Amino acid sequence: MTDIYAPTSHDSINLVELELYHLLMNYRATEGLAAVPLSVGLSATAGRHAVDTHDNIWAQNVTLPEGANLHSWSDAYYYSDHRDPTVMWDAPSRIGSSYTDSGYEISAAGFATIEAALSGWQGSPGHNSVIMNEGSWSSATWNAIGVGVIQSDDPSLEYNGRIYHVWFGQQTDPSGVPIIEGTTGDDDFVATSFADIIQADLGNDTIDAGAGDDMIDGGSGSDSMDGGAGDDTVTYENAASGAMRLSLGGTAGVGGQSDGDVLTNIEHAIGSNFADTIIGSTLANTLNGLGGADLIFGNDGADTIDGGDGDDALVGGGGADNLIGGAGIDTARYAGSAAVTINLATNTATGGEAEGDTFSGIENLVGSQNADILTGDANANRFEGLGGDDVFQGGLGADTMIGHLGIDTADYSDSASAIEVGIHRTGVGGTADGDVLIYMERIIGSAFGDDLVGGGTAPIIEGAGGNDTIIDYGGAATIMGGDGDDTINAGTGADSIDGGAGIDTVRYANTSAVQIDLAAGTGSGFAAEGDIFVNVENVVGSNAGDTLTGDDQANRLEGLYGEDTIKGGLGNDVLLGGGNADTFVFDAAGFGRDLILDWQDNYDKIDLRGSGLTHASFTEVDTAQGVRLDYFNGVSTDAIHLFGASLSPSDIDSSDFLV
C-alpha cells in the first residue's frame, strides 16, 4: 500500500505526463483557448490519484462498489450518478496538497498511449467539454492543471496497469508549479509556456524551457539548455562534486556537473557548493556562487552577484551591480575598469565599472590600474590599488592596504584619535589600529599627535594636525608636518621638509655630522645632504661636530655631542651645544636676545669674528641663571644669556671669545 497523504515520487511531473499536458494544450489551442499553467497542488493530486488507483486498488485487487468509477480513491468512492461530488472536488485539500480550491478531474484507463487516452476523451462529450470549456463548463476559466500517468503495462492488473488522471482548477495555485523530472537517459524536454522548474537527471539532455521564468537543473551529462523567453535560471546547487567553470554566454562549461553544458537564453545562474567560476552575459544577471571560494564575473548589465559561503571574488563589470559577499572573506574586483571611488562604509561607488554599485558583506577591494579611492568600513578590510595613484582610507578594523604601482596614499585624516603607523609595521590607535601598509608611498596622519614612520617605499609623509612625531628611515622623502608642533626625524636621502604651522623641529640624532642652515633652507653632510627646509623653527643635530644655523625666527638649535658650531641668527634663540667644546657664532649686530642653556666655561666659545665686536662691547650682568652679556646695537639691546651653575661675571673673560 502507498500512503497517499504523504508526498510520493509522482507528485512531480515526468516527461510522459509533460507530453500529455502538451497534447491537451495543443488541442485547446485549436479552438483558440489559452494554455493552462501546471499546478504543484493539482499535479500532486493527479499523481497520487494515479498511484492510489494503481497501487492501492488494482494491485490490491480491490473491487469497487457497484456504480463507483475511476474517479474513486481507495478510501473515498465516486459514483457515476455524482451522488457525492465532494469526493472529487475536495480531494486536493483532503490529501494535503497546496491547492485549496475545488478540483475537477477527467480520467481514462487501459489506453496504450497518451495519444489514445486523449482521443478517448475527445470522443466523450462529457470529458471533452471539461477540456474545452464547453457546455456546463463554458463559464469556467481554468487557471491550474495537474497530470498523473502510470503505464506499468502489467497484464496482471486491471486495465494492464495504465491509468490517466488530469485535474483542472479555477484558482491559480499559490504554491506555484511542480518539478518536471527527467530520466537517467538522454532526454528531450519541452517545457510549458509558463514558469517551470526542470530537474533533469543523468544523460546528455536537451532542454527547451520555453516562455516563462524557468528554473533549470540539467543534472549530470553534457546538456544543452535553452531558457527561451523570460527570466531563466540554471542551477547547479545539487552537484555532488567538482568545481566548475560556467558561462551564460554560450561557451561550454568545464568541470563538475557543468562539464560540456551549453547555455542559451539563460539570464541567471546558481553555482555549486564547490569553488566555481561563473561568467555572466551582457544582460542583467543574478549570479549566486553558493558554497566554495567562487570567482564570479557579471560582465555588462545591472547584475546581482551573491558569492554565498566561502571566500569569493566578485567582478561586477559594467552596469550598476549589487555585490553580496555572503559568508567568508569576500572581494570586489575592478582590475579592468577605469578609475573607481568606492566607500564600503556608506555603500556607495562611482566611476568606471563601479558606477552605481552597492555592496553587502564585502570585506576586500581590488581597484583598477588607474587612480582609485578606496574606503573601508568597521571590518578588517584588504585593499589593493594595482596601478595609478590610489588613496586608501581603511576606517576602523585591522586593514591591509597594498598600493602596488603609482604614488599611493594611506589616509588617516578621518581618525578620531592619534595613530601610530608606518611601512611594514602594524598600526596602533584610531583607525590605524592593526593596519599593515605595503607598497605605500604616502601617509597622511590624523588631526591628533601621531607617530608616523616613512621613508624608502613611503617617501611622502603628512602629519596633518596635532603635535606629530615623524620618522624618515631613508630615501628622498617629502615630509609635511602640517598644523601643530611637530618633530621630524630626518633620514638619509635628499629630503624636502615643510614643518607647516606651529613650532617644528628637525632631528638628526642618529647620523654623522650635518650642516643645517634654516635661513638658506638647506642641509648638507650625511643624512642632511640635499635636504631643504620650509617652516622649520628648531634643529637637533647629531652626536658629531655639526654646524647649525638659524634664521630670523626664534630658533632652538641643539648640537648634542661633538664640537658643534651654532649660529642663532636674528630672532631670540635658544642654543644648546651639548657635550664637548662648542662654538656659538654671533657675526652681526641685531642678533636678538639669545639663551645658551648649557654654557661650559673654559670649553665653549663665543665667536664674534664676523660682527666687529669684542668682549669689551658687552656689559656683563649677573643673573640667577648665570651671566647675561648685553650689547646696545643703536636701536635695541641684544643679549647673550649664558646659563651655567654658579657662573658669575668674573668667570667671563676675553679667552671665552673669538675675535
Keywords:
10-stranded mixed beta sheet; mainly beta; 28% strand; Pathogenesis-related Protein p14a; Alkaline Protease, subunit P, domain 1; 659 residues; 12-stranded mixed beta sheet; rod-shaped
Description:
It comes from Pseudooceanicola batsensis (strain ATCC BAA-863 / DSM 15984 / KCTC 12145 / HTCC2597). The longest helix has 19 residues, at about 40-60. This protein starts with 14 loop residues before the first helix and ends with a strand. The strands form seven sheets. It has a twelve-stranded mixed β-sheet with strand order 30-33-35-37-39-43-45-47-49-53-52-51, with no helix packed on it. A ten-stranded mixed β-sheet has the order 22-21-25-27-29-32-34-36-38-42, with no helix packed on it. About 10% of the residues lie in helices and about 30% in strands. The model has no long low-confidence stretch (mean pLDDT about 95). It has six helices and 54 strands. By secondary structure, it is mainly beta. Among the domains are: about 15-175, 3-Layer(aba) Sandwich (Pathogenesis-related Protein p14a); about 180-330, no CATH class; about 510-525 and about 535-659, Serralysin-like metalloprotease, C-terminal (Alkaline Protease, subunit P, domain 1, 2 Solenoid), CATH 2.150.10.10.
